[in-house]
Amino acid sequence: MRWLLDQGIPRSTGSRLRDAGHDAIHVGDIGMSAAIDLDIMAYALRKKRIIVTFDADFHSILARQRANQPSVIRIREEGLKSNIIEKLLLHMANRFSAELLNGCLMSYQNQKIRLRKLPVS
Description:
Blueprint: E1 2-5, H1 11-19, E2 23-26, H2 37-47, E3 50-53, H3 57-65, E4 72-75, H4 82-95, H5 97-102, E5 104-109, E6 112-117
Parallel strand pairs: 1-2, 1-3, 3-4, 4-5
Antiparallel strand pairs: 5-6
Helix pairs in contact: 1-4
């Protein structure tokens, strides 16, 4: 999978995902740590990356635009350690790879995953 980790996601999550064979970058590594959400989404769309964030705005922007890409995973629990986020993303990649590649919104909270395919009506 090709991940784009938003500000707030520990940078070390990127190294852990790369060690597991995934292509992961953090917005801070590409000079986008202060970028607005629309610019991050445009980058993810151009580079075919899945956004991982704590921010609810990505889901609402995609719903309003009725867009079908990029996929966004919103983690709704603050304070998760890098190793936990890595395991969560690897689980999602294994279980939902087709959905993530084809465009979806995912949320994780209280050990539950919610998935909606894009575009959202």
